[in-house]
Amino acid sequence: MTDTVLSLRGVVKRFSGIYALRGVEFALRRGEIHALCGENGAGKSTLIKILSGVHPHGSFEGQYLLDGKEAAFASVRDSQARGIAVIYQELPLVEDMSVAANIFLGAEPQRRGPWPLSRLIDEPSIRRQARALLSRFGILLDPDRKVSSLGAGQKQLVEIARALRNRSRVLILDEPTAALTDRESEALLALLQELRREGQSILYISHRLDEVMSIADHITVLRDGQSVFSAPAQEVTQPLLVQKMVGRELGELFPPRTEPQPDRTPLLTVTGLSVAETRDGPCRLSDISLTVHEGEIVGIYGLLGAGRSELLLHLFGAWGVRQAGSVLRRGTAHAPKGPADSISAGVLMVSEDRRRFGLVMDESIRFNLTLSSLAALLTQGLISRRKEERTTHQMAERLRVKAASLEQPVRTLSGGNQQKVVLGKSLLCQPKVILLDEPTRGVDVGAKQEIYALLDELRREGLGVLMVSSDLPELLGMSDRVLVLSGGTIQASLAAEVATPEILLQAALADSARPATANRESR
Ligand SMILES: Nc1ncnc2c1ncn2[C@@H]1O[C@H](COP(=O)(O)OP(=O)(O)OP(=O)(O)O)[C@@H](O)[C@H]1O
Ligand SMILES: [Mg+2]
């Protein structure tokens, strides 16, 4: 009698010459939460795609056993039929349909219809069953709501409800909390613990190591496509975990703090700024004043829907109509009509939604890196291929982008490496001010350290940074000053030395009772 649900033995997976997995041993036991950790590109998502039949039997070497027998899945359908449910890094929900319809997608209960329709989808039954399912797991969601109106965290819950509807035995989650706020993450983790109590086996991938330490029963580490470590969670400490992931001692995550120069030039000065989404809409940002100086990182803290991304997008010329106030870029008016205007004024942005705004997925790393800085590569009106190659190589090296070559399509990069390309693209524009929205989402701990070091270096060279981050240690570790945004206004401005998580949260909640903020979960 074994309590192993599924296992991999000596699994090797290649993509036309690139090894994604090169010898993986893995076993998932009944009723455990098993965390899978590893750097960007280590092979975590690839491993999952084998478990779920996305990479079918025959497309990899080695053995995949389910209940002790060869799984031999030909497709995802096969794995679903055997009770394996996966929640992927990207959310594949139908935005235009309701929560209930999404939960029952492809498995709609049916009823007899009037002639000539012999079968109809049983809408009332879908709604009823969805409501029962959601309440059974304590998920607070209206089954009739359209998915497009939900925030990222709520969408995640819909996905989980869908997996639970299938009565899966194995639930696999690929970075489920990457797009969630702390509070949403906590709700999700509590739900997973509840499911474990009911005997569900869970495979959990996350770059948030504190999360891993708090809920995992067992931890396996992948490095360069190999399983290098696997142990019960109680035998693992966070430094040990990091060391196994990156293969070396990491040292301090954040660069040492330096005293700010006393008389620095203001690069971006915002005064009394109010912005509405449309010309006659209500203000979503009101009376915002802030200054970003040369060589300064200003962090923005706030809860989901506080207006953080909207503020950055507006300064970048990509969102909203200005109703009042002014923005000065080194003393001259900055009112970009679009991103192109902003870029030529030296104000760059790294969006939190890299798939929609950051990358051309089918194009190469080289193409994407130089997308915004082509002008700098011109020699007598033509793009200098040599210059392009040199600059992209340097940047890819600096950010440690893991790829076979710079001609590899961005689509085939791991999530974290895609994020590095987005960041590199903006840095190649030689920005004076950079607006960062969740810059290290999905980025592994080693690469984070390098990105922090790079930002610190650029700060010393005089770059001004305005950074939104839900990652509190990052916000506190990198910012010289932290602004707290709530309900579209700035509630507090704190020097980094005095900002603590408690003070920030308190300020962020100060205004959350106002009804205007409640329905503002724009992403
Ligand atoms: N379809 C593909 N074609 C070519 N290479 C691929 C493909 N899919 C994955 N790879 C490569 O396989 C390696 C492992 O990628 P994978 O997505 O499994 O990493 P990961 O551990 O999930 O990383 P992350 O933490 O960034 O999500 C990477 O080097 C990636 O570029
Ligand atoms: Mg991945």
Topology:
Layout: E1 4-15, E2 18-29, E3 33-37, H1 44-51, E4 61-66, E5 69-70, H2 76-81, E6 84-87, H3 99-103, E7 110-112, E8 119-121, H4 123-136, H5 152-165, E9 170-174, H6 182-197, E10 201-205, H7 209-215, E11 218-223, E12 226-232, H8 238-246, E13 266-276, E14 283-293, E15 297-301, H9 308-315, E16 321-329, E17 332-333, H10 339-344, E18 347-350, H11 354-358, H12 365-369, E19 378-379, E20 382-383, H13 385-398, H14 415-427, E21 433-437, H15 445-460, E22 464-468, H16 472-478, E23 481-486, E24 489-495, H17 501-509, H18 515-518
Parallel strand pairs: 3-10, 3-11, 6-9, 9-10, 15-22, 15-23, 18-21, 21-22
Antiparallel strand pairs: 1-2, 1-4, 4-5, 7-8, 11-12, 13-14, 13-16, 16-17, 19-20, 23-24
Question: Which labels suit this protein?
Answer:
six-stranded mixed β-sheet, disordered C terminus, binds magnesium ion, alpha/beta, 24 strands, 18 helices, binds adenosine-5'-triphosphate, Rossmann fold, globular, 523 residues
Question: How would you briefly describe this protein structure?
Answer:
The protein is an alpha/beta fold and 523 residues long. Helices cover 32% and strands 27% of the residues. The protein has 18 helices and 24 strands.
Description:
By secondary structure, this protein is of the alpha/beta class. It has three domains: 4-246, P-loop containing nucleotide triphosphate hydrolases (Rossmann fold, 3-Layer(aba) Sandwich), CATH 3.40.50.300; 252-346 and 431-523, Rossmann fold, CATH 3.40.50.300; 359-419, no CATH class. 32% of the residues lie in helices and 27% in strands. The chain has 18 helices and 24 strands. It has a six-stranded mixed sheet with strand order 6-9-10-3-11-12, with helices on both faces. A six-stranded mixed sheet has the order 18-21-22-15-23-24, with helices on both faces. The protein has a four-stranded antiparallel sheet with strand order 2-1-4-5, covered by helices on one side. The longest helix has 16 residues, at 182-197. It is globular, with a radius of gyration of 24 Å. Adenosine-5'-triphosphate (ATP) is lined by residues 15, 18, 20, 38, 40-46, 402, 412-417, 444.
